[in-house]
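Board notes (copied after class):
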Amino acid sequence: MKLPFFSKKEKKEYFLALLLGEEKVSAVIFQEIHGTARVVGRHEEHLEQPLEDTPFDTWLKVLDKAIGTAEGSLPPNVQTQKTIFGVKENWVEDAKIKKEYLVKLKKASEALMITPIGFIVIHEAIAHLLAQQEGAPVSALLLEIGQKVLIISLIRAGRIIETRQEAIEVDSAKTADTLLHHFNYEVLPSRIIVLSDQQNHDVLSQSFISHTWSRALPFLHVPQVAILPKGLDAKAVFLGAATQMGFETITDKDVLHAIEIKGKEDTEVLKASDVSKEEDDIEEEEEGFGFVMGTDVREKKKESEEEETNEKEVPKENNRIEKVSNFVPVNAISSSPSFFNTILATISPIKKIIMHTIKKLYIPTPSLAFLKNTPFKNGGIILIAPVIVIILIAILASYVLLLKATVTLFVKPKIDEKTQTITLTTKDNTDFSRSTINAQAIDVTENGKITLPATGQKEVGTSAKGSITIYNKTSQKVTLPSGTIVTSPNNLTFSLEDSVTIASASGASDAFSSISPSTAKANVTATDIGKESNLPSSTVFSVKSFATSDVAGKNDTAFSGGTKKEVTVVSKNDINKAEDSLTKNLQDKAKNDMNQKIDNNTVLLPFTANTEFKTENTDKKANEEANSFTLSGTIAYVGVAYKKDDMQQFSKTLLQQDVSDSAFIQDAITYTLEDTKQEKGKITSTLHATISLLPKLDKEKITKDIAEKSFDVTQNILVNLPQVTSATIQLHPNIFFLPKTLPRLSHNITLVVKKE
């Protein structure tokens, strides 16, 4: 005898997830059997132009080809109609598809003979999938890189805050850098997640890692870049849609691999023999675009299964043209499920586990005759159902009592700065009220020498010499002492080597006048060196203090012996320069020796307060001819040092004027001294003090506020706390099919605060 239980056929239903990207269209066919969904076909087609620039007819043909190819894995006479659309973030506003895109989807649905049952935002689905994989909501920059267009979504705590796109000009990294300047936020997440269809992920990853990001971008540190597997967008939409519809998904690696590769070659294909003839009649599709708001997708599915349809088989063709009525634009599938949907998604797997356990506990009967005397239909007797209920209650109670969570808050420190001019003195004690810091003098003595080239210039040579005849035309005897100056017509001067006496004039002479002058010979030497004094013969000379008409001189023969040349000598400036250079050369050694004299709590100022030559010696004198010279000496250096504790305490006193201890805690105080200089016997400097302030958070109150709250509500509470930029939540144990809710008991929540 064949029992009805064994003759019942498996009921299979097929759904289409259609991803409408900026440069490509992806169609994913998944099958649902008894609440479990798995992918059975996938295909993607690329657009020659960005979506907004592609004509509708061309876009429709691409959609038709993608769907038709993906349906190649289905049994004969089976065609998908119930469709979940994956759309771009800018297509949606206030949880609804914008009117202009709604009209476009309506026309496409009518032409392709598909029945829309909801939509999901692609980037939200990816963020949701990453949060499931990592166990906490994601804060990152999601970059979708196409051939011509780059799209960036800013994700904070699992929510998309803003999305922008731009045409790729030079390369993806530089385009991303430019586009990020349009995100006007104080801080951007230092994590970049890249979704791309490029084959060589290593090249793409290296281009981002080697890129130097603009300093104007508000990254707290160099962003970390991760490349997502190819096809993860389709995987995310499939898993997100299946979860919202209350289906379990087959998560083994072989099946999920089918969603991460291009084409259907590696996708598990159902054979026609696997489908019963009873499935030849396709259930009638629900009318309207999407679900009515507030209606659960699983309830609608259940109603459609209970209705019998006599609709004829629809032949499978690439050209799907049918009319769909009652176009109702509703977002039935969202990446942020309602609490009700979450509970349903949780109950479904628990129910299956319970039923599976109960079946295992049935006691089989040896004959059908015994079945007639039992009130049970399936041939077994439940003996320990109450025990199972008690066990389940105990497990649930243990879960509630033992569930723990670690909540990590990332806070951005508040920076407070102060600037103050201070005086460092070796004479007075530290006085914060007068901005005076006590300092101590540190002295050392250093020996050294330095050799420098001589740069002075000096003329050397010999003076011209000769003999002149001195004529006296006066009536008086003239005596000229040694050294008397005689001057040539070109103003060259000569001095008499010896004194000479010339008698008074008498008689006549053709040379001067009717009076005959007296004469005397005298030797002269030029007062300046140089060949210019080598005068020719018959040169007339004037004699100092006499008119040429009274006393004059004339050389009978030319002067000779005058020479001149220029030589290098040690100048006074050379010696001064050597003193400065030696002082600087020994300064570093002096500072090192000074540092040896102070302890770790003392800081030496970067300059020396005083230097003095104790001894000094040069191997060449000033104006002495030489090409180089050496200076040696002993120099005394005096430095100034201050105590770190004094400067740290003064910085703290300065900063605490604006810090409220009830609101902030101090993290670290740093200070720098700038523009330090010595004037009129005192040293002044500009103190720049900085403090990093962290908020004082009431951890006990926070854990009570977030106890038993969902992850989304908790994130909203936490990011509104002072200086908190983001938060992560980890459950222990983290059971994937249970709702993401924090422990009921606040003391089971551990709050960790970290600097961002």
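Comment from the instructor: Residues 676 and 685 are 4 Å apart (CA to CA). The longest helix spans residues 339-360.
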